Protein backbone atom coordinates (compact mmCIF):
# COMPACT_ATOMS: atom_id res chain seq x y z
CA UNK A 1 0.00 0.00 0.00
CA UNK A 2 1.35 3.39 -1.01
CA UNK A 3 1.01 5.69 1.97
CA UNK A 4 2.08 9.27 2.49
CA UNK A 5 3.02 10.56 5.93
CA UNK A 6 0.63 13.25 7.13
CA UNK A 7 1.94 16.79 7.39
CA UNK A 8 0.18 19.72 9.02
CA UNK A 9 1.74 23.10 8.28
CA UNK A 10 1.49 25.84 10.88
CA UNK A 11 -0.88 24.06 13.21
CA UNK A 12 -1.23 21.10 15.51
CA UNK A 13 -3.82 18.62 14.28
CA UNK A 14 -6.84 17.90 16.44
CA UNK A 15 -7.67 14.42 17.74
CA UNK A 16 -11.28 13.92 18.80
CA UNK A 17 -12.29 11.13 21.15
CA UNK A 18 -15.96 10.16 20.93
CA UNK A 19 -17.48 8.24 23.83
CA UNK A 20 -21.07 6.94 23.51
CA UNK A 21 -22.60 6.55 26.98
CA UNK A 22 -25.78 4.81 28.05
CA UNK A 23 -26.23 4.52 31.80
CA UNK A 24 -22.50 4.64 32.53
CA UNK A 25 -22.57 6.98 35.57
CA UNK A 26 -20.64 4.47 37.71
CA UNK A 27 -17.68 4.22 35.37
CA UNK A 28 -17.44 7.65 33.75
CA UNK A 29 -15.03 9.29 36.18
CA UNK A 30 -12.62 6.35 35.82
CA UNK A 31 -12.90 6.42 32.03
CA UNK A 32 -12.31 10.16 32.02
CA UNK A 33 -9.25 9.87 34.27
CA UNK A 34 -7.73 7.03 32.26
CA UNK A 35 -8.32 8.86 29.00
CA UNK A 36 -6.74 12.00 30.49
CA UNK A 37 -3.58 10.11 31.45
CA UNK A 38 -3.21 8.76 27.93
CA UNK A 39 -4.05 12.00 26.13
CA UNK A 40 -1.67 14.08 28.29
CA UNK A 41 1.17 11.85 27.15
CA UNK A 42 0.29 12.27 23.48
CA UNK A 43 2.67 14.66 21.75
CA UNK A 44 1.95 16.74 18.65
CA UNK A 45 -1.86 16.78 18.72
CA UNK A 46 -4.59 18.88 20.33
CA UNK A 47 -7.25 16.68 21.95
CA UNK A 48 -10.97 17.15 22.41
CA UNK A 49 -13.37 14.72 24.01
CA UNK A 50 -17.04 14.37 23.15
CA UNK A 51 -19.25 12.41 25.50
CA UNK A 52 -22.60 11.52 23.97
CA UNK A 53 -25.39 10.71 26.41
CA UNK A 54 -27.69 8.28 24.61
CA UNK A 55 -30.79 8.93 26.74
CA UNK A 56 -29.42 7.63 30.05
CA UNK A 57 -31.60 7.52 33.14
CA UNK A 58 -28.92 7.13 35.82
CA UNK A 59 -27.16 10.49 36.17
CA UNK A 60 -24.81 10.01 33.22
CA UNK A 61 -25.85 13.36 31.74
CA UNK A 62 -25.17 15.21 35.02
CA UNK A 63 -21.71 13.60 35.15
CA UNK A 64 -20.70 14.50 31.60
CA UNK A 65 -22.26 17.95 31.86
CA UNK A 66 -19.97 18.55 34.87
CA UNK A 67 -16.91 17.31 32.96
CA UNK A 68 -17.70 19.59 30.02
CA UNK A 69 -18.05 22.61 32.30
CA UNK A 70 -14.67 21.88 33.92
CA UNK A 71 -12.64 21.81 30.73
CA UNK A 72 -12.68 23.49 27.34
CA UNK A 73 -11.42 20.30 25.78
CA UNK A 74 -14.50 18.33 26.80
CA UNK A 75 -17.91 18.56 25.20
CA UNK A 76 -21.16 16.93 26.18
CA UNK A 77 -24.00 16.09 23.81
CA UNK A 78 -27.34 14.89 25.10
CA UNK A 79 -29.63 12.93 22.83
CA UNK A 80 -33.32 13.34 23.60
CA UNK A 81 -33.83 9.61 24.24
CA UNK A 82 -32.08 6.26 23.78
CA UNK A 83 -31.40 6.00 20.04
CA UNK A 84 -28.92 3.12 20.33
CA UNK A 85 -25.16 2.76 20.15
CA UNK A 86 -24.76 3.26 16.37
CA UNK A 87 -26.76 6.50 16.37
CA UNK A 88 -24.88 7.75 19.45
CA UNK A 89 -21.54 7.09 17.72
CA UNK A 90 -22.75 8.85 14.59
CA UNK A 91 -23.88 11.83 16.66
CA UNK A 92 -20.42 12.04 18.24
CA UNK A 93 -18.67 11.75 14.87
CA UNK A 94 -20.79 14.52 13.43
CA UNK A 95 -20.15 16.78 16.39
CA UNK A 96 -16.42 16.17 16.28
CA UNK A 97 -13.96 18.58 14.71
CA UNK A 98 -10.79 16.45 14.76
CA UNK A 99 -8.47 15.70 11.87
CA UNK A 100 -8.69 12.19 13.28
CA UNK A 101 -11.51 10.79 15.42
CA UNK A 102 -11.44 7.76 17.71
CA UNK A 103 -14.65 6.13 18.91
CA UNK A 104 -14.22 4.27 22.20
CA UNK A 105 -16.66 2.55 24.59
CA UNK A 106 -17.32 4.17 27.94
CA UNK A 107 -16.91 1.01 30.02
CA UNK A 108 -13.10 0.64 29.63
CA UNK A 109 -13.44 -2.60 27.68
CA UNK A 110 -11.51 -0.80 24.96
CA UNK A 111 -8.15 0.16 26.51
CA UNK A 112 -7.38 3.90 26.00
CA UNK A 113 -3.67 2.93 26.16
CA UNK A 114 -3.95 1.77 22.52
CA UNK A 115 -4.65 5.33 21.36
CA UNK A 116 -0.98 6.42 20.86
CA UNK A 117 -0.32 3.39 18.66
CA UNK A 118 -3.44 4.12 16.61
CA UNK A 119 -2.47 7.78 16.21
CA UNK A 120 1.06 6.80 15.13
CA UNK A 121 -0.40 4.66 12.33
CA UNK A 122 -2.62 7.56 11.28
CA UNK A 123 0.48 9.81 11.09
CA UNK A 124 1.97 7.17 8.82
CA UNK A 125 -0.90 7.76 6.43
CA UNK A 126 -3.55 5.12 7.25
CA UNK A 127 -7.15 6.43 6.99
CA UNK A 128 -8.70 3.80 9.27
CA UNK A 129 -7.07 2.06 12.22
CA UNK A 130 -9.29 -0.66 13.68
CA UNK A 131 -8.74 -2.30 17.03
CA UNK A 132 -9.17 -6.07 16.70
CA UNK A 133 -10.16 -8.20 19.66
CA UNK A 134 -7.77 -11.08 20.19
CA UNK A 135 -9.69 -12.27 23.23
CA UNK A 136 -12.71 -11.12 25.20
CA UNK A 137 -12.62 -11.38 28.99
CA UNK A 138 -15.66 -11.34 31.26
CA UNK A 139 -18.15 -11.93 28.48
CA UNK A 140 -20.62 -14.77 28.46
CA UNK A 141 -20.02 -17.82 26.30
CA UNK A 142 -23.20 -16.91 24.46
CA UNK A 143 -21.91 -13.42 23.63
CA UNK A 144 -18.52 -14.69 22.48
CA UNK A 145 -19.98 -17.53 20.41
CA UNK A 146 -22.72 -15.40 18.85
CA UNK A 147 -20.22 -12.66 17.95
CA UNK A 148 -17.82 -15.22 16.47
CA UNK A 149 -20.52 -16.80 14.32
CA UNK A 150 -22.18 -13.50 13.40
CA UNK A 151 -19.07 -11.71 12.13
CA UNK A 152 -18.01 -14.71 10.07
CA UNK A 153 -21.47 -15.28 8.61
CA UNK A 154 -21.85 -11.60 7.77
CA UNK A 155 -18.42 -11.53 6.19
CA UNK A 156 -19.30 -14.56 4.02
CA UNK A 157 -22.61 -13.04 2.99
CA UNK A 158 -21.34 -9.52 2.53
CA UNK A 159 -21.19 -7.88 -0.87
CA UNK A 160 -17.71 -6.49 -0.01
CA UNK A 161 -14.86 -7.34 2.43
CA UNK A 162 -15.53 -6.72 6.13
CA UNK A 163 -13.07 -6.66 9.04
CA UNK A 164 -13.55 -9.56 11.48
CA UNK A 165 -13.73 -9.27 15.27
CA UNK A 166 -13.84 -5.50 15.48
CA UNK A 167 -16.37 -3.34 17.21
CA UNK A 168 -16.48 0.41 16.76
CA UNK A 169 -13.20 1.09 18.59
CA UNK A 170 -11.29 2.63 15.71
CA UNK A 171 -9.55 5.71 14.48
CA UNK A 172 -11.03 7.45 11.45
CA UNK A 173 -9.39 10.14 9.40
CA UNK A 174 -11.50 13.29 8.85
CA UNK A 175 -12.05 12.21 5.24
CA UNK A 176 -13.80 9.03 6.44
CA UNK A 177 -15.84 10.93 9.04
CA UNK A 178 -17.00 13.33 6.32
CA UNK A 179 -18.00 10.40 4.10
CA UNK A 180 -19.98 8.85 6.97
CA UNK A 181 -21.67 12.18 7.60
CA UNK A 182 -22.75 12.41 3.98
CA UNK A 183 -24.16 8.90 3.73
CA UNK A 184 -27.92 9.05 3.29
CA UNK A 185 -28.36 5.54 4.80
CA UNK A 186 -30.86 5.46 7.61
CA UNK A 187 -29.82 1.95 8.50
CA UNK A 188 -26.35 2.65 9.88
CA UNK A 189 -23.83 -0.07 10.57
CA UNK A 190 -20.70 2.02 11.00
CA UNK A 191 -18.06 -0.72 10.95
CA UNK A 192 -19.49 -2.01 7.67
CA UNK A 193 -19.76 1.42 6.05
CA UNK A 194 -16.14 2.17 6.93
CA UNK A 195 -14.98 -1.06 5.24
CA UNK A 196 -17.20 -0.30 2.26
CA UNK A 197 -15.33 2.97 1.59
CA UNK A 198 -12.25 0.85 1.01
CA UNK A 199 -9.77 3.52 2.11
CA UNK A 200 -6.39 2.36 3.50
CA UNK A 201 -7.19 0.39 6.65
CA UNK A 202 -4.91 -1.29 9.16
CA UNK A 203 -5.38 -2.69 12.63
CA UNK A 204 -3.94 -3.10 16.08
CA UNK A 205 -4.86 -6.10 18.22
CA UNK A 206 -5.75 -6.19 21.88
CA UNK A 207 -7.19 -8.37 24.60
CA UNK A 208 -10.59 -7.07 25.52
CA UNK A 209 -10.96 -6.55 29.27
CA UNK A 210 -14.15 -7.07 31.26
CA UNK A 211 -16.44 -4.17 31.89
CA UNK A 212 -15.07 -1.81 34.58
CA UNK A 213 -18.44 -1.88 36.30
CA UNK A 214 -22.13 -2.37 35.64
CA UNK A 215 -23.72 -4.66 33.11
CA UNK A 216 -23.62 -4.76 29.33
CA UNK A 217 -26.04 -2.24 27.84
CA UNK A 218 -26.25 -4.35 24.72
CA UNK A 219 -29.34 -6.38 25.50
CA UNK A 220 -30.20 -9.37 23.31
CA UNK A 221 -32.64 -7.13 21.48
CA UNK A 222 -29.92 -4.57 20.73
CA UNK A 223 -27.54 -7.31 19.57
CA UNK A 224 -30.21 -8.63 17.22
CA UNK A 225 -30.84 -5.11 15.98
CA UNK A 226 -27.13 -4.64 15.26
CA UNK A 227 -27.00 -7.93 13.33
CA UNK A 228 -30.06 -6.94 11.35
CA UNK A 229 -28.47 -3.59 10.48
CA UNK A 230 -25.28 -5.30 9.36
CA UNK A 231 -27.11 -7.78 7.16
CA UNK A 232 -29.55 -5.33 5.61
CA UNK A 233 -26.82 -2.80 4.89
CA UNK A 234 -24.15 -5.11 3.53
CA UNK A 235 -25.67 -8.28 2.16
CA UNK A 236 -28.32 -9.08 -0.39
CA UNK A 237 -28.02 -12.84 0.18
CA UNK A 238 -31.10 -12.99 2.47
CA UNK A 239 -33.13 -11.25 -0.18
CA UNK A 240 -32.16 -13.90 -2.70
CA UNK A 241 -32.52 -16.79 -0.25
CA UNK A 242 -36.31 -17.13 -0.69
CA UNK A 243 -35.80 -17.69 -4.40
CA UNK A 244 -33.28 -20.48 -3.70
CA UNK A 245 -35.41 -22.04 -0.95
CA UNK A 246 -38.55 -21.74 -2.99
CA UNK A 247 -36.85 -23.43 -5.93
CA UNK A 248 -35.55 -26.21 -3.66
CA UNK A 249 -38.97 -26.70 -2.04
CA UNK A 250 -40.68 -26.78 -5.39
CA UNK A 251 -38.13 -29.20 -6.84
CA UNK A 252 -38.53 -31.43 -3.75
CA UNK A 253 -42.32 -31.35 -4.11
CA UNK A 254 -42.15 -32.14 -7.82
CA UNK A 255 -39.78 -35.06 -7.22
CA UNK A 256 -41.97 -36.49 -4.47
CA UNK A 257 -45.11 -36.10 -6.53
CA UNK A 258 -43.40 -37.75 -9.51
CA UNK A 259 -42.00 -40.68 -7.50
CA UNK A 260 -45.29 -41.39 -5.74
CA UNK A 261 -47.38 -40.47 -8.76
CA UNK A 262 -49.57 -38.20 -6.61
CA UNK A 263 -49.88 -34.52 -7.63
CA UNK A 264 -51.25 -33.57 -4.17
CA UNK A 265 -47.75 -34.01 -2.81
CA UNK A 266 -46.74 -30.86 -4.67
CA UNK A 267 -48.08 -28.78 -1.80
CA UNK A 268 -47.18 -29.37 1.83
CA UNK A 269 -45.32 -28.00 4.81
CA UNK A 270 -42.08 -27.49 2.83
CA UNK A 271 -43.71 -25.19 0.33
CA UNK A 272 -45.54 -23.32 3.07
CA UNK A 273 -42.33 -22.84 5.09
CA UNK A 274 -40.47 -21.51 2.09
CA UNK A 275 -43.26 -19.03 1.40
CA UNK A 276 -43.47 -17.84 4.99
CA UNK A 277 -39.72 -17.35 5.14
CA UNK A 278 -39.75 -15.49 1.86
CA UNK A 279 -42.42 -13.14 3.17
CA UNK A 280 -40.53 -12.59 6.42
CA UNK A 281 -37.34 -11.65 4.60
CA UNK A 282 -39.23 -9.34 2.25
CA UNK A 283 -40.75 -7.74 5.33
CA UNK A 284 -37.33 -6.97 6.79
CA UNK A 285 -36.13 -5.27 3.62
CA UNK A 286 -39.43 -3.47 3.25
CA UNK A 287 -38.95 -2.13 6.76
CA UNK A 288 -35.51 -0.84 5.79
CA UNK A 289 -36.94 0.78 2.67
CA UNK A 290 -39.74 2.32 4.71
CA UNK A 291 -37.21 3.83 7.14
CA UNK A 292 -35.24 5.24 4.25
CA UNK A 293 -38.35 6.74 2.68
CA UNK A 294 -39.49 8.20 5.97
CA UNK A 295 -36.13 9.96 6.04
CA UNK A 296 -36.21 10.72 9.75
CA UNK A 297 -32.98 11.92 11.38
CA UNK A 298 -30.88 9.28 13.16
CA UNK A 299 -31.16 11.09 16.47
CA UNK A 300 -32.24 14.36 18.01
CA UNK A 301 -29.86 16.49 20.04
CA UNK A 302 -31.53 18.00 23.06
CA UNK A 303 -28.58 19.94 24.50
CA UNK A 304 -24.90 20.68 23.94
CA UNK A 305 -22.38 21.85 26.50
CA UNK A 306 -18.88 23.05 25.70
CA UNK A 307 -17.07 25.02 23.06
CA UNK A 308 -18.49 25.33 19.58
CA UNK A 309 -16.37 23.31 17.22
CA UNK A 310 -14.00 25.27 14.96
CA UNK A 311 -14.94 23.16 11.96
CA UNK A 312 -18.53 23.55 10.71
CA UNK A 313 -20.78 20.75 11.87
CA UNK A 314 -22.23 18.36 9.35
CA UNK A 315 -25.99 18.44 9.03
CA UNK A 316 -27.87 15.98 11.24
N1 LIG B 1 -24.31 2.26 24.43
C1 LIG B 1 -25.03 3.33 23.93
N2 LIG B 1 -26.36 3.15 23.65
C2 LIG B 1 -26.98 1.96 23.84
C3 LIG B 1 -26.21 0.86 24.32
C4 LIG B 1 -24.88 1.04 24.60
O1 LIG B 1 -24.49 4.43 23.74
O2 LIG B 1 -28.19 1.88 23.59
C5 LIG B 1 -22.86 2.45 24.74
C6 LIG B 1 -22.41 1.96 26.11
O3 LIG B 1 -22.58 2.95 27.09
C7 LIG B 1 -20.94 1.63 25.85
C8 LIG B 1 -20.95 1.15 24.42
O4 LIG B 1 -22.12 1.67 23.82
O5 LIG B 1 -20.12 2.77 25.95
C9 LIG B 1 -20.91 -0.37 24.29
O6 LIG B 1 -21.96 -0.91 25.06
P1 LIG B 1 -21.77 -2.14 26.05
O7 LIG B 1 -20.47 -2.02 26.77
O8 LIG B 1 -22.97 -2.26 26.91
O9 LIG B 1 -21.74 -3.34 25.00
P2 LIG B 1 -20.83 -4.65 25.05
O10 LIG B 1 -19.42 -4.20 25.32
O11 LIG B 1 -21.37 -5.48 26.14
O12 LIG B 1 -21.00 -5.25 23.69
MG1 LIG C 1 -18.85 -3.08 26.86
Topology:
Elements: E1 14-21, H1 25-40, E2 46-53, H2 60-70, E3 74-79, H3 85-95, E4 100-103, H4 115-123, E5 128-136, H5 141-157, E6 166-173, H6 174-182, H7 190-197, E7 201-208, H8 220-234, H9 237-260, H10 269-294, E8 301-305
This protein binds uridine-5'-diphosphate and magnesium ion (MG).
Uridine-5'-diphosphate binds at residues 20-22, 24, 54, 82, 84-85, 88, 105-107, 109, 216-218, 222.
What does this structure look like?
It is a multi-pass membrane protein. With 316 residues, the protein is of the alpha/beta class. It has 10 helices and 8 strands. The protein has an 8-stranded mixed β-sheet, sandwiched between helices. The structure holds uridine-5'-diphosphate and magnesium ion (MG). Uridine-5'-diphosphate binds at residues 20-22, 24, 54, 82, 84-85, 88, 105-107, 109, 216-218, 222.
Amino acid sequence: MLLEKRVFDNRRPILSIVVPCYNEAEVLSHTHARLSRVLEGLAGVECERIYVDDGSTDGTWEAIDRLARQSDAVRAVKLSRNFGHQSACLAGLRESSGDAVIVIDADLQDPPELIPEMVALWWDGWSVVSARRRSRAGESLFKKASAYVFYRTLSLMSDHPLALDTGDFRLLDREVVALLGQMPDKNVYLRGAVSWFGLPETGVTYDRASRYSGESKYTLRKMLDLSRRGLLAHSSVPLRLPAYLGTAALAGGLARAAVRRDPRLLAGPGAFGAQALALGIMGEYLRAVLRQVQGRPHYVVERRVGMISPVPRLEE
